[in-house]
Design a protein that fits this description.
The structure holds two protein chains of two kinds. Chain A contains ten helices and no strands. Chain A is mostly helical. Chain A has one domain: Orthogonal Bundle (MetI-like fold). The longest helix of chain A has 37 residues. The two termini of chain A are 14 Å apart. By secondary structure, chain B is of the alpha/beta class. Chain B contains 20 helices and 22 strands. In chain B, strand 4 and strand 5 form a beta hairpin. In chain B, helix 3 runs parallel beside helix 6, helix 6 packs parallel to helix 7 and helix 15 runs parallel beside helix 16. At the A-B interface, helix 6 of A face helix 12 and strand 16 of B.
Chain lengths: 281, 553
């Protein structure tokens, strides 16, 4: 039966996922790279005579309430938004996987301590936790990465640990012990690769949460400090002008949506590609 | 043709929407009160056909042609609403897996009452009275308490009985039993089967048994339908199928029935490889709400020795501790007491001897679907144990892997396959290759064939025995299947409730069992006597002695 569904799946869903996801994500990355080397205007430059100007020949995507060029800000913002979300997700996934693997595989007191701390962290809403940390660290890009990374790590720990708990009872993990393999080898060779599917799903979903959390933090005044643009703080700043200058909110919103869509579509493809059972397309 | 049969399946084909046929042109009939069986291996379409009778086909599968006449009505043509009147009330079904076919969140009483409430108008008291009466008939101790208990409080055999009771409560005209006892060990299997047939006979219910086990079906059913790859290849009375099978596939099924191989020369004088001395494994009781439950002695003071190069079979029902003992031998379980001496050195004392033992002692697990890492290719799986083999370079390693795959009967083209691309038998061959690639001195085979089809079982058993002949490793062969044991073992140890009750050379044990538990086990296997012309005839081996069995408890 699986021989039948496979070509079907490849033709109908995997290819478009790869194509559309790649396109969206590619656009975001290109924007981020372009923003590093070239922008139409200085993203911080104020054009007093063109405040809240709609898209035109001079300002392709319009200007904001201080008369700053939106396109330039979006390009530069792409860089910091991508950087913040990628590093945050990598930190959270890295730390969470390590803790989850050790706790789940070795159990015992290690597991109990790790999971008690983890549950304590989970008990706070992520954004509240980040808020508290940022209040101590002060706003800034590295502060946001650290705070959001710490806020999202417990989720990863939970997911990885529960996967490991079921894997460690499987016979191929026991077989590895009988062969004479050490615990560390078994964990990295047999357990970790079989955690990849839930991890990729988790990581791709997390990109979205981090982008949105960053804008929420900006909204609360604890994001990347004001003159520097990020998609999140642009979205936050657009709120008072939503009726008079809708492009201010719509454009960064669209950027965030496209980035999320792209990452999620690619995440699905990645998950299938990483799983040998899904291969043979 | 005096009257129409109860069930008449006429030219039924089942197919996927793509046109791929799963069952093609199947026909058979079943008289009221008759016991018949459908036999076939996995993928033969026997379960699909049975589910088709109840309209329980998995969604994409549809019936394309044919009729299923039950009591004169064509079940395939009936709308779903009217079909529901047949399910449960006229046609009952018992599934294979007793562990999952009862809802763990609902009490037994609730689940049993469901069908009665749905199909009959009875008062609560009457429902309860009928349930208690039925539970008494299936010999559940304390039926009142059973009604308010939950499924997890019962063993697999008990659950299957309860399942049977709740189906028979509605007095259906037909009972479909899909591998009803495959998940149970042989003693319980016989009990449940006997009970099923006793109940159905007294109610006049016809039974359609579906199984991969030809011997089991032929010994209980009056008629056998043999299916292969979606087609009915032969159907006849059980005696004739056994004695004079006409289709080559039926003949190959019969040939796959394990037969006793000639005994090999005595292993008496050989040195002892593994000496198990007074070994105990205790699992701490689960912590309940208020107090800890009593600890469970899975292995209780077992002494046993395995000589170099012999196959020692460890036989027992489920829960007898045989698997735990096997796992202790490969150090997956730490014993609570006693010693395990491998060539005279204690296995559980840390140090070089233990390491040597670990490397010289390998295991083949029961379930080939769980014992291979789904993300590793066959070559990597088989090569992995060689990491710990000193003095092998890459080329030598690759050569050894290819050789070993040849030895287990898999060609070079299997090297870069993933486990999901292999059949159950092929996976088990890979698992065996992984176990023998380092040339172990002892192989623990934990129910290595019980998850496989009959013809594949025969191949794997043959493979184990020939590998053992050639490579000379000793083997601890753990099984509940006496037929398989009879085929491969040199000596047999029988285990009950964590203790060894009898140890004897194979022929002595099978021909003159001493312990009542051994006798009970032997009498539970449907024995087929080979006839000179190649067929088989049913034979009762040794009459069970219920009184003596009970007194030994």
């Amino acid at each position: 039966m699986s021989t039948l569904s496979r070509p079907l799946r490849s033709r109908l869903s995997v290819r478009p996922n790869l194509l559309v996801g790649g396109l969206f994500l590619g656009m975001v990355l290109v924007a981020a790279l372009v923003g590093l080397v070239w922008t139409p205007y200085d993203p911080l430059a104020i054009h007093l005579r063109a405040r809240l100007a709609p898209p035109s020949g001079d300002f392709w995507l319009g200007t904001d309430e201080f008369g700053r060029d939106v396109l330039s800000r979006l390009l530069v913002g792409a860089g910091s938004s991508v950087w913040i979300s990628v590093t945050t997700v990598l930190c959270a996934v890295g730390a969470g996987t390590l803790i989850g693997l050790t706790a789940g595989f070795f159990r015992g007191w290690l597991d109990r301590i790790a999971m008690t701390c983890n549950d304590a962290l989970l008990a706070f809403p992520g954004i509240l936790l980040a808020l508290g940390l940022l209040a101590v660290l002060g706003p800034g890009r590295d502060g946001i990465i650290l705070a959001l990374g710490l806020a999202y790590t417990p989720l990863v720990v939970r997911v990885v640990r529960s996967t490991v708990l079921s894997l460690r009872e499987r016979e191929f993990v026991e077989a590895s012990a009988v062969i004479g393999n050490g615990a560390a080898y078994t964990v990295f060779r047999h357990v970790l690769p079989n955690c990849l599917a839930p991890l990729t799903i988790m990581a791709t979903a997390m990109f979205g949460w981090v982008l949105l959390s960053e804008s929420a933090l900006s909204f609360l005044g604890l994001g990347v400090p004001p003159p520097a643009p990020t998609w999140g703080n642009m979205l936050a700043a657009s709120r008072p002008h939503l009726l008079t200058a809708p492009w201010l909110g719509i454009l960064p919103g669209l950027c965030i949506s496209f980035a999320l869509l792209g990452i999620n579509l690619l995440g699905d493809v990645l998950r299938d590609r990483l799983d040998p059972r899904m291969q043979g397309l | 043709m005096s009257r129409a049969p109860l069930l008449s399946v006429e030219g039924v084909s089942l197919a996927l929407p793509s046109g791929l046929g799963l069952v093609e042109d199947a026909s058979f009939r079943l008289e009221a009160g008759e016991v018949a069986g459908i036999v076939g291996e996995s993928g033969s379409g026997k379960t699909l056909l049975a589910r088709g009778i109840l309209g329980l086909l998995p969604p994409p599968v549809r019936a394309t042609t044919g009729r299923i006449l039950f009591d004169g009505a064509d079940l395939l043509a009936l709308p779903a609403r009217s079909l529901r009147r047949y399910r449960g009330r006229r046609i009952g079904m018992v599934f294979q897996e007793p562990m999952t076919s009862l809802n763990p969140a609902i009490s037994i009483g609730e689940q049993m009452a469901e069908g009665l409430r749905l199909h009959e108008r009875l008062s609560g008291g009457e429902i309860r009275r009928r349930m208690v009466a039925m539970l008494e008939r299936i010999r559940i101790p304390d039926p009142e308490a059973c009604l308010s208990a939950y499924p997890h409080e019962f063993s697999g055999g008990m659950r299957q009985r309860i399942m049977l009771a709740s189906v028979m409560l509605l007095r259906p005209a037909l009972l479909i039993a899909d591998e009803p006892t495959t998940a149970l060990d042989c003693l319980v299997q016989r009990e449940v089967l006997d009970l099923m047939l006793e109940l159905t006979r007294s109610e006049g219910t016809a039974v359609l048994m579906i199984s991969h086990d030809l011997a089991m079906v032929a010994s209980r059913a009056s008629r056998v339908v043999v299916m292969q790859q979606g087609r009915v290849v032969e159907q006849d009375s059980s005696e004739r199928i056994l004695l004079r099978p006409s289709h080559p596939y039926t003949r190959s099924l019969l040939a796959a029935l394990p037969r006793r191989q000639p005994a090999r020369p005595e292993t008496e004088g050989r040195p002892t490889l593994l000496d198990i001395r007074d070994l105990s494994v205790v699992f701490p009781g689960r912590r309940g709400l208020l107090r800890r439950r009593a600890p469970k002695w899975a292995v209780d003071g077992v002494s046993l020795s395995i000589r170099e190069g012999e196959i020692l079979a460890l036989v027992g029902g489920s829960g007898s501790g045989k698997t735990t003992l096997g796992r202790a031998v490969v150090r997956l379980v730490r014993p609570s007491g006693g010693q395990l001496l491998f060539r005279g050195a204690d296995v559980f004392a840390d140090g070089i001897d233990a390491r040597r033992h670990a490397l010289a002692c390998q295991i083949v697990f029961q379930d080939p679907f769980a014992s291979l890492d789904p993300r590793m290719r066959v070559d990597a799986v088989v090569a992995e144990p060689l990491r710990h083999e000193a003095g092998l370079d890459r080329a030598a390693r690759r050569r050894r892997v290819a050789e070993t795959l040849d030895e287990v009967g898999l060609g070079r083209d299997f090297l870069d396959r993933y486990p999901h691309q292999l059949s159950g038998g092929q996976r088990q061959r890979v698992a065996i290759a992984r176990a023998i690639v380092r040339r172990p001195a002892l192989l623990v085979a934990d129910e290595p064939v019980s998850a496989l089809d009959m013809t594949v079982q025969r191949q794997i058993l043959g493979l184990l025995r020939s590998l053992q002949d050639r490579l000379g490793f000793a083997c601890l062969f753990i099984s509940h299947d006496l037929a398989a044991v009879e085929q491969v073992a040199d000596r047999v140890a029988v285990m009950q409730d964590g203790r060894i009750v009898e140890t004897a050379p194979r022929d002595a044990l099978f021909d003159a069992p001493r312990h009542p538990y051994t006798r009970a086990l032997l009498s539970a296997m449907p024995a087929l006597e080979p006839q000179p012309d190649g067929g088989f005839r049913l034979r009762r081996r040794i009459a069970p002695e219920p009184e003596r069995l009970r007194s030994h408890g």
